User: What shape does this take?
Amino acid sequence: MAIFIYKGKDKQSVERSGEIESSDPRSAASILRKRGLIVVSVKVKEIPFGSGIESIFNKVSFSDLVRFTRQLATMIGAGLVLSEALDILDEQEENKKLKKALGEISDAVKGGMTLAQSFSRHPEIFPAIYVNLVKSGEASGKLDQVLLKMADNLEKEREFRARIKGALIYPMVVIIMMVAVIVLMITFVIPRLTALYTDAQIDLPLPTKILIAVSSFFTTFWWALLIALAAGIYGLRRWGKTQEGKLVLDKLLLKMPIVGKIITSVTLTNFTRTFGLLVSAGIPLLEAINIVSDITDNSVFKRSLKESYIGVERGLPFSTLLPSPLFPRIVGQMVKVGEETGKVDEIFFKLSDYFESEADHMVKNLTVAIEPIILIILGIGVGFLVISIILPIYKLTTSF
Assistant: This one.
């Protein structure tokens, strides 16, 4: 993703400019047009030297956004004037980037802009869905209620992310340690044993020859391997940013055993929760589908939602446009019930709880399943090393 600087005009011919994050200029222009802007220019923002380091240590995290939303919702619900609430939050904010943005937002609100318009000038902090929900709350006169629902939704999402990351820490640490031990053995231990066996002038067994050949290759051509690895990662990332490349990679990820099911459950959790929040805030169905499809990371789901948008636009029920097996049958059935009873938002919130539970169980099962796999790999590796090292020593001792 890159940051683009745009210039344009709104429906009242008022000039607008700002920054937007997107994969390419065409996608950025498309997002801006959906926001009702007539795009004049879109160009990549030039990042000055050293700003990347600064952005790492001075960025608005997801937790910062959750905290800000909860505080703003509480203050507005308590009856504080919007500008006053923003000033209070600005004074007590410790994050420099968010503090600067709050100062500008407060000034814009005092100058006559709506809160949604003020937020839209800071897309790096407030995503499109956030701005649309605030806009809906302002239009319906229920900004405090919308903000409270947003805060609850964001807190649930934060907890969900934390559980997923926490469950994946153990297998990742084990894999990293395993790779580190293998690299240490190949680059430091094996070369010393090679010198010992060379001095002994004995006919080495095949496993030992293979181990020494691998070690020699790594120690001699380590620089070529690093270059090849870096080039491969760079090329894959560049290709993965293209529309075709991302679609192929996302399809492969969804087809992977266990991992594919986890990605599907996580994506469905985010989709159903976000969609329910949008519908409950009074955002029209078509606009909600469009917003959710824009923020969905997986290209396969994104393409399916785009196709659903076209179908709903033609008058077809949304429940019939969620293809199986990408969307489990329960989704279409539950959405159909929601459409018939007029409780689509409640149905989507129930679905989000269901898929969140499924994702939690799958991640726990992944941790349980990966342990024996790692032990088997470690056992084979250690066994091969022991045989490769012990056999020449045994042969050397029996030769005397």
